[in-house]
């Protein structure tokens, strides 16, 4: 199997040295990703494309990597042939014969156009070949006719000297810049819609994205955020190893209630998060923070309030969602696969301002900050936990807030809580029920009675989260199942 990988157009308009650096970074990223997924591929480099070769066994995995790698604009699934003649009419006929099996069925009853991209030395033009192939397909097939402007089907191919590539499918990529070409950021990750979409957009733009989480809601909240951060990294950013930092903020919240005016609680909480994040970013060697705030979405996110918050730290704060509305953000979450995670993250509303300020002043917030016991923030930052994102699974399972079992006891019900497509790809033979994690909470009471309920997912992270949530809801007979 062969693929032609096209680069994001903004890469191609850069100066020679920048373009070379970006293309080389994309090449290295793809090598790292294919190696990480155990995919045997060969990559050939050209100034304007890569050619990727693999066998049919690894085809699906290769396409998943190419579709989710920042820097790839699109990739073409092609069938390659070697042309064996230089004589113009014979060569064009040879191209037609190779092309026919791939397109005659596809254009039946439809309008079509032929598009040829040709490089090398040939005794005919691309336009002449397109006319020849169009006439051939009309004669040999049953299309509705040629339509050059808006065809129902486009028959595309590339010819380089004596090599013919028949394009059988064009698959869109993420676009953006290769990760590692635009620096690093530290994302304030809550696990909800906004922070997850903002983190994705930063990865898409080529930023190596670390995560910091301020825990306000206990073990279940932290597990949920680790779950979605791991998903984002594994899906879009695994070419680079990044950090996940968890900061215990319950004490900070308690201190805020004791010292800060109710109308400034939300602003002060965000200010302290930014200040803690900046210190952690310095430790990581990162100069920029990333936030999922959108102008006007909540009271703390007015333009005036955001400006006041920016003045509480020295570095830059990126807000890729600043001008988006909630519907747009949710659409992005749907597109990248984080909506189900965000909906299942336990909400924590421990800091709700009364009559929240919408036009905060720097002078007033400095006054509120002076009344707050700074030692609480120092303690929270000092007790932070920092791990590599690829250690999240081991970390969650090592802490095991919920008991993990490796064999199935009698009168137990095994529930596969993976998404339906994953269940279809790799069914769990021991499962009694397949119930997606995003339906588990409101359908749990409808399950058959059992002495023990065992939740299963690929890595155990999602199972830990939802088992903890069920326990918090009063279902004590819930455990995590991890086959040996």
Structural description of this entry:
By secondary structure, the protein is of the alpha/beta class. It is built from 18 helices and 19 strands. The longest helix is centred in the N-terminal third of the chain and has 21 residues, at 16-36.
Keywords for this entry:
6-stranded mixed sheet, 484 residues, 43% helix, 8-stranded mixed sheet, 21% strand, globular
Describe the structure in brief.
The chain is α/β, with parallel strands linked by helices and 484 residues long. The protein is built from 18 helices and 19 strands.
List the helices and strands and how they pair.
Layout: E1 2-7, H1 9-12, H2 16-36, E2 42-46, E3 49-53, H3 59-67, E4 72-82, H4 88-107, E5 111-119, H5 126-140, E6 145-146, E7 153-160, E8 163-172, E9 184-188, H6 193-204, E10 208-215, H7 219-237, E11 243-248, H8 250-259, H9 265-284, E12 288-290, H10 303-310, E13 316-318, H11 326-336, H12 339-344, H13 362-371, H14 374-382, E14 385-388, H15 392-399, E15 404-405, E16 412-416, H16 420-425, E17 433-434, H17 437-443, E18 452-456, H18 461-472, E19 478-481
Parallel strand pairs: 5-6, 5-7, 9-10, 9-12, 10-11, 12-13, 15-19, 16-17, 16-18, 18-19
Antiparallel strand pairs: 1-3, 1-4, 2-3, 4-8, 7-8, 11-14
């Amino acid at each position: 199997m062969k693929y032609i990988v096209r680069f994001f157009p903004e890469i191609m308009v850069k100066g020679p040295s920048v373009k070379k650096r970006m293309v080389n970074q994309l090449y290295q990223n793809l090598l790292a990703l294919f190696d990480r997924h155990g995919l045997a591929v060969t990559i050939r480099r050209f100034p304007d494309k890569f050619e990727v070769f693999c066998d049919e066994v690894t085809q699906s995995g290769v396409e998943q990597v190419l579709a989710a790698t920042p820097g790839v604009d699109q990739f073409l699934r092609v069938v390659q042939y070697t042309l064996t003649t230089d004589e113009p009419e014979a060569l064009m006929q040879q191209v037609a014969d190779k092309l026919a099996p791939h397109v005659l069925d596809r254009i039946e009853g439809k309008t079509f156009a032929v598009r040829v991209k040709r490089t090398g030395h040939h005794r005919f033009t691309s336009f002449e070949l397109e006319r020849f192939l169009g006439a051939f397909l009309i004669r040999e097939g049953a299309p509705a006719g040629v339509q050059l402007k808006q065809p129902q089907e486009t028959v595309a191919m590339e010819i380089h000297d004596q090599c013919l590539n028949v394009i059988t499918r064009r698959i869109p990529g993420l676009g953006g810049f290769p990760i590692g070409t635009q620096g690093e950021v530290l994302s304030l990750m809550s696990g909800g819609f906004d922070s997850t979409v903002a983190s994705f957009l930063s990865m898409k733009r080529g930023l190596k994205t670390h995560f910091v989480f301020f825990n306000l809601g206990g073990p279940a909240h932290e597990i949920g955020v680790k779950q979605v951060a791991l998903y984002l990294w594994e899906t879009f950013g695994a070419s680079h190893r990044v950090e996940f930092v968890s900061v215990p903020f319950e004490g900070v919240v308690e201190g805020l209630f004791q010292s800060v005016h109710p109308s400034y609680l939300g602003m002060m909480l965000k200010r302290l998060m930014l200040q803690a994040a900046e210190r952690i970013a310095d430790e990581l060697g990162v100069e920029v923070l990333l936030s999922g705030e959108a102008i006007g979405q909540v009271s703390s996110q007015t333009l005036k309030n955001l400006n006041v918050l920016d003045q509480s730290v020295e570095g830059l704060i990126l807000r890729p969602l600043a001008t988006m509305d909630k519907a747009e953000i949710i659409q992005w979450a749907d597109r990248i696969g984080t909506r189900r995670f965000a909906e299942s993250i336990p909400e924590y509303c421990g800091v709700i301002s009364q009559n929240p300020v919408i036009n905060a002043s720097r002078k007033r917030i400095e006054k509120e900050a002076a009344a707050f016991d700074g030692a609480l923030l120092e303690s929270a930052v000092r007790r932070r936990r920092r791990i590599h994102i690829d250690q999240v699974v081991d970390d969650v399972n090592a802490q095991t807030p919920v008991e993990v079992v490796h064999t199935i006891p009698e009168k137990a019900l095994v529930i596969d809580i993976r998404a339906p497509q994953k269940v279809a790809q790799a069914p769990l033979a021991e499962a009694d029920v397949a119930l997606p994690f995003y339906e588990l909470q409101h359908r749990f009471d409808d399950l058959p009675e059992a002495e023990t309920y065992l939740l299963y997912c690929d890595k155990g992270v999602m199972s830990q989260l939802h088992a903890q949530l069920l326990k918090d809801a009063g279902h004590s007979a819930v455990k995590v199942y991890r086959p040996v």
